């Protein structure tokens, strides 16, 4: 992939003996740190920092999705930065191309950034799983702490529904499994929180964008060009 917001491969170091080797070394462009380290640091982050990070993140992700590729492991440590605040999406080890007919593994994405459809073992999913991860990362940039630090998948679902509310029956339409729908219905019921009140330190635009990304039903999540147009 050739894009200024995707980490670039500079070289591949091949083994001297092609018939007998165990390792191949890939050389990437040098970056200074990653978003996880910045969030955990004492480095002040202004609204301009957050906007610039998000713009580059979405720009790179739009390019990835335009190639019919899902990243499937978006998290702050996979977003690399340099001293100029240039952002590059990295670590495509779990990425794969999309297909309307292929079934895909459910166990992808680090738990804290995993979309509800993955937590509920959906084997058919779309680029909406990456958008959920973007929402989790956006919230983490703005609050300086993870939104959903679940200890296991049950706890993860509870933290999600405590914030965005328990899904109604129409919002479960994407689930093909009757067992999955029954499981969600028997979970404790929570009302949707007011994002503007819950995230009072955010601008109204940031809270609105976050709310559009963190939607239980993947078919109702903000998508495509809307992501870049819905800045804050």
Structural overview:
This protein has 232 residues and is mainly alpha-helical. It has one domain (31-229): Transferase(Phosphotransferase), domain 1, CATH 1.10.510.10. 37% of the residues lie in helices and 9% in strands. The protein is built from nine helices and seven strands. It has helices spanning 35-40, 47-66, 116-119, 128-143, 153-164, 178-185, 195-198, 204-213, 225-229; strands spanning 9-13, 25-28, 33-34, 69-70, 79-81, 87-89, 96-97. The strands form three sheets. Strands 3-5-6 form a three-stranded antiparallel β-sheet. Strands 1-2 form a two-stranded antiparallel sheet. Strands 4-7 form a two-stranded antiparallel ribbon. A hairpin with a 5-residue loop joins β5 (79-81) and β6. α2 (47-66) runs antiparallel to α4 (128-143). The longest helix has 20 residues, at 47-66. The protein starts with 8 loop residues before the first strand and ends with a helix. The mean pLDDT is 90.
Helix/strand layout:
Blueprint: E1 9-13, E2 25-28, E3 33-34, H1 35-40, H2 47-66, E4 69-70, E5 79-81, E6 87-89, E7 96-97, H3 116-119, H4 128-143, H5 153-164, H6 178-185, H7 195-198, H8 204-213, H9 225-229
Antiparallel strand pairs: 1-2, 3-5, 4-7, 5-6
Helix pairs in contact: 2-4, 4-8
Q: Can you give me a brief rundown of this structure?
A:
One of its GO terms (molecular function) is ATP binding. The chain is mainly alpha-helical and 232 residues long.
Beta-strand content: 5-15%
List low-confidence stretches: none
Enumerate the strands of the largest sheet in spatial order, edge to edge or round the barrel. Answer: 3-5-6
Number of strands: 7
Largest sheet: 3 strands, antiparallel
Rg, Å, rounded:
19 Å
CATH architecture: Orthogonal Bundle
Distance separating the two termini: 28 Å
What structural class do the secondary elements suggest?
Answer: mainly alpha
Q: Into how many domains do the coordinates divide?
A: 1
What is the residue-averaged pLDDT?
90
CATH topology: Transferase(Phosphotransferase), domain 1
Q: Give, in order, the helices and strands.
A: EEEHHEEEEHHHHHHH
CATH superfamily: Transferase(Phosphotransferase) domain 1
Helix content: 25-40%
Q: How many DSSP H or I helices?
A: 9
What's the CATH class, please?
Mainly Alpha
CA-based shape: globular
């Amino acid at each position: 992939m050739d894009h200024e917001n995707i980490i670039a491969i500079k070289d591949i170091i091949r083994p001297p003996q092609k018939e007998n080797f165990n390792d191949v070394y890939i050389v990437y462009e040098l970056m200074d740190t990653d978003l996880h380290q910045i969030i955990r640091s004492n480095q002040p982050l202004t609204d301009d920092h957050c906007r610039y990070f998000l713009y580059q993140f979405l720009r790179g992700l739009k390019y990835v999705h335009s190639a019919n590729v899902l990243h499937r492991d978006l998290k702050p440590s996979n977003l690399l930065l340099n001293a100029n605040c240039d952002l590059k999406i990295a670590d495509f080890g779990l990425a794969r191309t999309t297909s309307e007919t292929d079934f895909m593994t459910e166990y992808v994405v680090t738990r804290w950034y995993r979309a509800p459809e993955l937590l509920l073992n959906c084997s058919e999913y779309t680029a909406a799983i990456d958008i959920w991860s973007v929402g989790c990362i956006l919230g983490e940039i703005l609050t300086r702490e993870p939104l959903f630090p679940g200890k296991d998948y049950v706890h993860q679902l509870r933290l999600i529904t405590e914030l965005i509310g328990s899904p109604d029956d129409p919002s479960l339409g994407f689930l093909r499994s009757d067992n999955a729908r029954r499981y969600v219905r028997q979970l404790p019921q929570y009302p949707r929180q007011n994002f503007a009140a819950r995230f009072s330190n955010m601008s109204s635009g940031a809270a609105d964008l976050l709310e559009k990304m963190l939607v239980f039903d993947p078919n109702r999540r903000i998508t495509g060009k809307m992501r870049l147009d819905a800045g804050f």
